[in-house]
């Protein structure tokens, strides 16, 4: 993507210097930014009283690859900005409507932050290691990372990979001590500090195995990774019973990697997945429109 400057700030700062058509578009967006993140190009053009090609040229002039890229970046910047507003809440949401709004905001904020940190090269390198692995061991500890590690197992075994997951610190060390050069540890951690994960990564690398981590890029765990997919996951909840939104960022990274692996393996696992779907018909009828096994 071209330029990572905050779009909302740029629309405000450069407004006076824009030509009339661009200024009309910018003002239409700034009048209701949240709505603008959802508007189709036709409706935005109507609000700004310009043509659709003018909208496309505008998005490219401000550093985007086109209208779709512009909307993604606008939604991302708006969500991150909202994070600081929501962070100022002094009392917890306790009613259905308020809780739904808070959880929704937390979700889009976490996804926006994860998207803004994406490293396509790291995703590709991680995918290649996992795709070619003899065995994959998914590690995590704690409520979020342990569950995401289990979800990684759930995603990858469907793609005909030899994969297992554990959150047991003893078992993690034992596995790390028995890996070989064509094995991969796939480790999730918000902080990158749990000793069982750091020790396991260090041990696996010493045995020439590969380690793929999804964690804070400056953490001890990342320093022992063959490939680290960077993720700085925030958690600023003031109320202990609010769920950690950082897990949405971890799931975003996992979805990216599993989709990339699926694309690489679709020709070899297609028939096996068809057979898997067929065996499930006896359990609950046709699964033609359902994910395999769900």
TrEMBL record:
Residues 5-81 form the HTH rpiR-type domain. CDD domains: SIS_RpiR. Transmembrane segments: none annotated. The keyword Nucleotidyltransferase does not apply. One of its GO terms (biological process) is carbohydrate derivative metabolic process. Keywords: DNA-binding, Transcription, Transcription regulation. One of its GO terms (molecular function) is DNA binding. Pfam families: HTH_6 (PF01418), SIS (PF01380). SUPFAM superfamilies: Homeodomain-like (SSF46689), SIS domain (SSF53697). Residues 126-267 form the SIS domain. This is RpiR family carbohydrate utilization transcriptional regulator. It comes from Aminobacter aganoensis.
